[in-house]
Amino acid sequence: MTIRVAVIGCGGMGSWHAGNLAAQPGVDVVAVADVYEPSAAAVAEQTGASVMDAHAAIEAADAVLIASSDDTHAEFAIAAIEAGKWCFLEKPLGATLDQAQRVLDAEIASGRIHTRVGFMRELDPAHAQVAAAAAELGHLTRVRSVHRNVDGERREVGLLFAQSLIHDIHTIRWLSGREFARVTVHVAERPDGFRDVLLVGGLVGGGLGVIDFEDQAFAYEVQVEVTGELGMAATVPHPRAIIRSQATESMIVGTDWFARFQDAYRLEIEQWCADLAVGVSSGPTVWDGFAAQVVAAAGEQAMLAGQPVEVVLPARPSIYERTPDPIREDQP
Ligand code: ISE
Predict the structure, then answer these.
(1) Gap from CA of 142 to ligand 1 centroid (Å)
(2) Distance CA 256, CA 219 (A)
(3) Which of 15, 103, 172, 261 has the CB geometry, 3.0–4.6 Å to 143, for a possible disulfide?
(4) Residue 325 DSSP symbol
(5) How far is 32 from 64, CA to CA, in rounded Å?
(6) Protein residue with its CA nearest to atom 3 in ligand 1
(7) Rounded distance between C-alpha atoms, residue 169 and residue 254, angstroms
(8) Cβ(93)–Cβ(289) under 8 Å?
(9) Given this structure, which CATH class describes domain 3-119+264-284?
């Protein structure tokens, strides 16, 4: 059986996912949509899909990948969920917490998990090794994520939390198996307008989640480190060639997340398609997207208030209950 997939949003991320989708057996990219017609046309040519309006694309497919602008995520995700389609949704769930809540409500009302959220670091081989090692480290005391982001835009500061730190928040929740209880944030503006953000979270059940984030214009890098009572595990800089020239040894770091996480992006699409073939949805859920967005919003509030902010999260809805995996066993 061939699964018909629609791609909504054909910019950088959408076209990258479309390339990975087109390489999957048993998958046919049948429809693409983008408010900017030339982007949709380019992906249509690459995949053999037809260009359509987003809602017609949802209608035409069995499964929908949403990588459009953040303020349209909720509208398209809710339409896909309500139409009973499988969904792959890029983070964040919506441009606001209210929109994120509506996506969560729609999926709960549907009674089953339709949606995988694009927190691709879970599929990054180095992060996965850290996750496996974390299970052997005893009670975890600290998870630290370092995120050096290249961004030319000098985004409005709230967007740093909703678009960038949200990945680190998810990583900390995933690796620790704990929720954030409260957050403290420091932000420093650089002379060139870029910002450094330090977020320290107290986790429910103990331990710290630390995010060391910067926007700048020179190199993209993500690292993670988990410390437990029995030891620690950390990623090393992504393996690349060492170059020797003019009496100097150097290594290319790169400036974008596509190169750093290319394996993770490919693997998450492979996993999504394997899931579609057997009619399940695994990996990061809408609940994960929502919980991370609540922490991101608390982070923004903590920054504005200049003091710690409690993270108020409702109980995990029953459709998102799952058997605890080894690294989550010490969760209270
Ligand atoms: C971007 O949207 C991403 O998803 C990247 O993974 C992240 O590193 C970057 O900070 C975001 O802006």
Answers:
(1) 23
(2) 8
(3) 172
(4) P
(5) 10
(6) 164
(7) 23
(8) yes
(9) alpha beta
Say which residues have a Cβ less than 8 Å from residue 274's Cβ, sequence separation at least 6: none
The pick from 16, 150, 164, 165 for probing ligand 1's pocket by mutation, whose C-beta has the most ligand atoms within 8 angstroms, reads: 164
For the chain, what percent of residues have pLDDT higher than 70?
A: 97
pTM flag (> 0.90): yes
Domains of the chain, by residue range, sit at 3-119+264-284, 122-260
**Residue reference for tokens 């992504």:** 238
CA of 239 to the centre of ligand 1 (A): 20
Are domains 3-119+264-284 and 122-260 of this chain identical in fold?
A: no
Closest CA to 89 of 117, 69, 64, 114: 117
CATH class, domain 122-260, is alpha beta
Q: Report d(CA 175, CA 203) in Å as an integer.
A: 12
Q: What are the pLDDT digits (tens) for 57-97?
A: 999 999 999 999 999 999 999 999 999 999 999 999 999 99
175 close to 142: Cβ distance less than 8 angstroms: no
Question: What residue type is 146 in one-letter code?
Answer: V
**Centroid of ligand 1 to alpha carbon of 320 (angstroms):** 25
Which residues have any ligand 1 atom within 6 Å of their CB?
149, 163-164, 167, 257
Which single residue is written with the structure tokens 């770091």? Answer: 253
pLDDT band at 323 (very low <50, low <70, confident <90, very high): low
CA 95 to ligand 1 centroid distance, Å: 15
Q: Are 169 and 190 in contact (CB under 8 A)?
A: no
